[in-house]
Amino acid sequence: MTAPRVPGAQLRYGRAALALSFFIQGAVFALLVTRIPAIQDRYGISDGLLPAFLAAVPVLAGVGSVVTERLVRRVRPSRVLRAVQPVVCLALAAVGSVGSMAQAAVALAVFGLTVGALDASMNMLGVSLQRAYGRSIMLGFHAAYSLGGIVGASLAWAGAHWKLSLALLYGPTVAVLAPLALLVGRWFVDRGRRAQEGREKAPAGAVAPLAMRLLLPLCLVMAFAYIGDSTVSNWSAKYLQDVLGSSEQLATLPYNVYMVTTLLGRAVGDLGVRRFGAVAVVRAGAVVAAGGFAVVAAAPGPWAGMAGFTLLGLGLCVLVPQTFAAAGRYAYEKHGPEAADMAVARLNIFNYVGFLIGSPLVGALGDAWSYRGAMLVPMALVLVTLLYARSFGAPEARYGDGHERPRTADVG
What we know:
Pfam families: MFS_1 (PF07690). It comes from Streptomyces nigrescens. This is MFS transporter. GO terms for molecular function: transmembrane transporter activity. It is a multi-pass membrane protein. By secondary structure, this protein is mainly α. It folds into two domains: 10-190, Growth Hormone, Chain: A (Up-down Bundle); 212-393, MFS general substrate transporter like domains (Growth Hormone, Chain: A). The chain is 79% helix and 1% strand. It has 18 helices and two strands. The protein has helices at residues 8-33, 36-43, 50-71, 77-97, 101-133, 138-161, 166-184, 193-201, 212-243, 248-251, 253-276, 278-298, 302-316, 319-335, 337-368, 371-374, 376-383, 395-399; strands at 189-190, 410-411. The protein has a two-stranded antiparallel ribbon with strand order 1-2. The longest helix is centred in the N-terminal third of the chain and has 33 residues, at 101-133.
């Protein structure tokens, strides 16, 4: 039998709820990464030990994504997301309030494991909702994430400016965000309940196998995009100050500008996909991002460097959402919704691979060669996307008129 249709109103509520979930995750993650120096000082983490702490989070997030791939064969992604997002928020609060380095390590481990499950399940729902709508909406969810990141980074700046303790910064914020995460989970929209009930009764391993080699181009695009992103987040301030001779105050601006242009690009990106197609948008994004790295590498001064980081935000912002959408669409067409979830979870691992590789790669090249030359490496990697652009397809070509067309879905 065909699973019941979901009314358009439920889809709209589900879309708004998922956007809020992306926003909460963006704020929480920004609050963690922007206060790493304060975390290091609070728990007396040495400079030699800090990289191990930082690397453990994305490694464990990758583990969480792998676990989620298996978990959603039995449990709807909406239930996973509803369960883990409050835990991520509480883990952030614990990072700022526990009493020892060992306890902080445990809190970061919990954060890493659950954030991997969160990222995977959140993007699974995004891909599923886009399929239900019949038009591109995935970039809008990631725009909400970018907005959350801006808010989180602003709160972190205020905490540092007013010299608030981590507990005083994280505690009230989590007291708002964790209940909000629980509340919005009531309106998450999943695919058809009947299809899910059939999955729950199916024996383990019944899902059609998904060949990883077919996803490899998209996995590479994901990793290269995050190498570019981590280059900006970890090296933009140092590059502007040490290479381009900016003031310390001016050096804080490139990442903020990057975040704002990422938000703006994602806010209008879905319109571009509907008008020109995903392939054209991805190609344009790759070219603009590569141009941004080229401008940064050749910049004669800090303001030219700032212009390069602005271009980077506008270019890189479209790649990750469209990569998730393309992987989910391909797997769904080949094997159905379960395979789409598997594809998203596997692709999500390369988010953390790129994050782990990007900063050390640029740092090593900068020390051994030059930081200007190091910027050309992520530029070349981003350009590889052009070779795989056809893998992104064009969703609106499948749905004809591009109007919203609610499909089989269910309230999770």
